[in-house]
Amino acid sequence: MSETYEILTIKSNEQAEGRFTRPSVAARTRQDRAARRAFFIITLLPVALIIIVAVALLIRAWPILSAYQLSDLLFSEVWKPGEGKFGFWPFILGTVWVTVVGVVLSVPACLLVSIYLAEYAHAATRTIAKPVLDLLAAIPPVVYGVWGLLAIVPFVDDVLAPLSDRWLGSISIFAVNQPTGFGILAGGIVLAVMIAPLIISVVYEVFSTVPNDLRHASLAVGATQWQTIRNIVLPQVMPGIIAAVVLGASRALGETIAVLMVVGNVPQIPTSIFDSAYPLPALIANNYGEMMSIPLYDAALLGAALVLLVVILIFNILSTMVLQRMLRRKWA
Amino acid sequence: MDAHIQVNNLNVYYGRQQALKDVNIEIPKKQITVIMGPSGCGKTTLLKTFNRFLELTDGAQITGEVLVDGENIYDREVDVTEVRKAVGLLAQRPSPLPMSIFDNIVYGMHIHRMKRDRREYKAAVKHYLEIAGLWDEVQKRLHDPATSLSIGQQQRLCLARGLAVEPEIILGDEPTSALDPISSQNIESRLLDLKQNYTTVIVTHTLRQARRLADYVIYMYLGEVIEAGPAKEVFTNPKHERTKQYLEGLF
Ligand SMILES: Nc1ncnc2c1ncn2[C@@H]1O[C@H](COP(=O)(O)OP(=O)(O)O)[C@@H](O)[C@H]1O
Ligand SMILES: [Mg+2]
User: Cα B240 to chain center, whole Å?
Assistant: First the structure.
């Protein structure tokens, strides 16, 4: 292919007096090709970077991966580095709990907001609401962490925990076993707010891929706007909504500082949303660089980082693939 | 004249731009009315005021009245979905819903709970596909996606879908402009067949189609209705200089 291309170019050089050829053209073509190649390489850089990071993590985690079975590392419950016990399970569960609670709290509200913005709001409302949401995404995580510490943790402790204890205490996932306010629910609430702008803007985009002709076809036979959304628009955007949620989840999985500040950081198997937990990112951030004299400790933490990276990459790739297919359809 | 739609002092603005200027017309019952005029003169806008589609456009403002059977469809108490059920629309581009052929026809009937059981829906689907002249072509593939039909078939499907909610009025905004000549002719003959039972209002920018279809003609120019009257009179003896020029193809 590239050879053919070369031959053609040379040929056109030879016929320099042809109708479309000027002496400068060859140089310009060459420049153009060089520029294209440069941009291509720059585009590849992030991919290369991810691969480099993954490989580096793998190499550094190798000592622990070769000393223990992967399933032992992932599923054993005891984390006592001093005794050579490296079980990731409490941290994996902590990550999953906080993420699931964050997503569950966030998604319903996000859907309502994006449906409102995409389907009901006037253009004027939209032009105000969109930048405000983008602003929400620009608040640094540590600020969310402080907010969680000052507002959410006391709120959970003083209001939600007593309420739950009174009405839902018999259901184990709502039981209040450690009444401090620090825990999964506080982390989940903070995460819910943090991932909302991302989910809303992606879902909004997905809604705008549905051609207006379809909405009009439904309205024209006398369907209400809600009937039109439910029967026509929602089925079209469902894959995109799921992808947006997965994208939000992958953001929540990796969120470190804000969660770390409110989640309690106790390496245990949580059973209730009021329990403390210790998600993977918090484990790595809190401990890396300390007590490095313990054998395999460094490798264990980097192994945890590798697990996190792989899960987030899978989530991201899947949702990006779905979303790109949908967004392309808009122009098709 | 037995007017089905009556338009009084109608003005429409898009932002600051005025798209319709003091329109006063009557649309006769159970005839084909053709709205014609050069592109951009407000034909689509006028048509959209008849099924309250104008309010789907951000920034569109409307003053005046549109009476259907003597009732102003812009009154506060009017249920817009009832208006749209009574006033069907055939769009410029066919827009099959992303579901099967069968479900496309059922969609509106189901929304309005018009039939009791599946047997009744089946019978209705057959009935309206026959009216739209599509039954023979699709009876073996009712559960295929509607998008698998040709463009011409899709437009007939949209006609059937509109008719299925039992409207009294059919609007068509250049309903054949996206179709090939044979499909266009097919739609035209459907509309001619249907005119005993429905009041039909068609926008067209081709004079020939207007001549073929029209019982009654409205000629518009720059947002104003220049001339309106029975087709015979307007085509043979236009009162207005502009109409005459348009009919002679001078612009
Ligand atoms: N959504 C809109 N926003 C602003 N102006 C519009 C809009 N739709 C139509 N117009 C303007 O209103 C006028 C009439 O348009 P339209 O009714 O579509 O004309 P026609 O159907 O006769 O071609 C045109 O000048 C057009 O530019
Ligand atoms: Mg038009």
Answer: 26
Question: Rounded distance, CA A256 to CA A57, Å?
Answer: 18
Residue of B44, B46, B49, B201 to mutate, ligand 1, most atoms within 8 A of C-beta: B44
**List of chain B residues whose C-beta atoms are within 8 Å of the C-beta of residue A236:** 98
Domain annotation for chain B: domains and CATH numbers: 3-247 (3.40.50.300)
Cβ–Cβ < 8 Å for B162, B90: yes
Contact B157, B94 (CB under 8 A): yes
Residue written as token pair 């109409």: B243
Partners of B218 in the β-ladder: B35, B228
- A179's CB contacts (< 8 A; 6+ apart) are A157, A161, A165, A274
Distance A290 CA to ligand 1 centre (A): 69
In this prediction the pTM is 0.86
For residue A331, the model assigns a pLDDT of 52
Spatial distance between the Cα atoms of B127 and B166, rounded to a whole number of angstroms: 12
pLDDT for res A27 = 81
Pair B158, B191: CB distance under 8 Å: no
Which residue lies with its CA nearest to atom 9 of ligand 1? B45
Reduced to 3 states (helix: H, G, I; strand: E, B; else coil), residue B32 is strand
Can you list the alpha helix ranges (DSSP code H) found in chain A? 2-14, 23-67, 70-75, 89-115, 123-138, 141-147, 153-155, 161-167, 184-207, 212-220, 225-228, 234-254, 257-260, 280-287, 297-331
What is the maximum span of chain A, computed from C-alpha positions, in angstroms?
A: 91
Q: For residue A21, what pLDDT is reported?
A: 65
> Rounded to 10 degrees, what is the CA torsion of B27, B28, B30, B35?
-40
Tell me which amino acid residue A85 is: K
- Structure tokens given for B176: 């054949």
CA distance B112 to B114: 5
Q: Can you give the pLDDT of all 251 residues of chain B as single tens digits?
A: 789 999 999 999 999 999 999 999 999 999 999 999 999 999 999 999 999 999 999 899 999 999 999 999 999 999 999 999 999 999 999 999 999 999 999 999 999 999 999 999 999 999 999 999 999 999 999 999 999 999 999 999 999 999 999 999 999 999 999 999 999 999 999 999 999 999 999 999 889 999 999 999 999 999 999 999 999 999 999 998 899 889 888 65
Nearest-CA neighbor of B241 among B219, B223, B211? Answer: B219
Helices marked H in B12-79 — which ranges? 43-50
- State residue B68 phi and psi, 5-degree precision: -110, 120
Name every residue whose Cβ is closer than 8 Å to that of residue A11 and which is 6 or more positions away in sequence.
none
SS3 (DSSP) at B134 = coil
- B111/A213 CB distance under 8 A: no
